[in-house]
Amino acid sequence: MIKRFNSIRFRYIRSHLYAMFITTVTLLSVLLTIHVLINPDWLNETSIFVFILLYVLLGIIISFYAGFKSSDSIKVTLDSISVLITQFANGNYESSMHINQDSEFSRIASELNHLGEKLQNQVKSLQRMADEKSEFAKSAHKSAVMEERQRLARDLHDAVSQQLFALTMMSEAAVKQLEKDPETAKEQMKDVAKAALQSQTEMRALLLHLRPVHLSGDSLPTGIHKLINELKQKSQISFHVRVPDDLSLSETIEEHIFRIVQESLTNILRHAAATEVTVNLSKRETELFVHIRDNGKGFDIDHYSDRKASYGLKTMRERSEELGGTFTVKSNVNEGTYIDIRIPC
Fold first, then answer.
1. How far is CA 331 from CA 9, 59, 280, 302, in A?
2. Could you report the per-residue pLDDT of 39-55, keeping only the tens digit for each?
3. Domain 215-345 in CATH: superfamily?
């Protein structure tokens, strides 16, 4: 009810009633002044009262009528503007309104129509961008799949395929030496077992690299523990893992850190020949510290030329720098490798 009395119609009626009240007070003041100063016969208290009473009654009736009539066109215009805005809010940007009279309302209607055209053009632009993004994503996915297939084919050829070929040659040689020289055959079979173990390790590393990059809804601690548990079942490496269960990070940081840990473990499996690996994650105030260490054969950083492992280290460094962090690697021959990462969070 209160909201109804605040409508445009009742505002107009109140303005007319206010004007009538001011006029009534002014007339009453004038009539009383004339009555006191001049005191004509026709102007007495009764005539003044009757005149003011009739004026007030007629004024109230006329105020209501004039208020409704004068606010009618404005209310219709405001309702049309409200409907147009509602149409815009519902996504119907093709709606428009037209006001023939040259007034402020016609200017507002013109601006609203222009706004609708702009919104419609923006929607078309967004849809076009979404289509282009979808096509780009499909193209990028195809390129990534093709590149990954080429990389796997290259790795299988450079590592596993060559090792299997070597195993075949060594096995055939051992079979030929079995009757003539059993001791030589025995040594050759040891080399075969060693090469087979290396091929198995290489294949495990490739399978680890093919593991899904994303955490698939798991938290970072859960994802790392699952990854380590898989490796424990497939290798003889002893793992020491310390990751706080209540570690809270953004989704982007978790994905990058998980990928860095996965890449480092792949490098360790393929190149380090380690028996112990340590993975520590800790958060201090506004920084995350990641420490990965192995007791493998290590390498000379200043004279390091292994393309595959250096590519893995480069990828981990790039991921760390994308998060605004620092990446440090330390290693010496036969002294293992240390990786320290510092990420602001």
1. 85, 100, 18, 10
2. 887 888 888 888 889 98
3. Histidine kinase-like ATPase, C-terminal domain (3.30.565.10)
